[in-house]
Description:
two-stranded antiparallel sheet; four-stranded mixed β-sheet; Alpha-Beta Plaits; guanylate cyclase activity; Guanylate cyclase domain-containing protein; 136 residues; 3 helices; membrane; alpha+beta; A/G_cyclase
Amino acid sequence: TVGDCYVAVTGLPDPRKDHAVAMARFARDCMNRMRSLTKAMEVELGPDTGDLSMRVGLHSGPVTAGVLRGDRARFQLFGDTMNTAARMESTGVPRRIQMSEETAELLIAAGKEDWVRRREEVVVAKGKGALMTYWL
Length: 136
């Protein structure tokens, strides 16, 4: 986790050709689970519980990974791929899964074109400029 953000990665330590498909399935499963949990929690916690939501951002590309030593040694990921993935999440909307053009192209190449919908608006992301993004 990074603050209130959860980061997941596929293809580490061993690369996998279907990483985009695997991550898209994971993201969809997380979103579906969140919907069912908030609905179930409304009974005990009240109707505003349904306002809880999450955004998901997907991007595909190379990363540098390793364990940094120090007071809190932990596994970390670095690189432009991580920055772009963070922008996909931060410029998304609640209850939606936004993905980069790179991930969309990988899903289409894997025969999952029906999973990909182009976002109407061009997204302007800090440090990236205008980006064409897609919904899962």
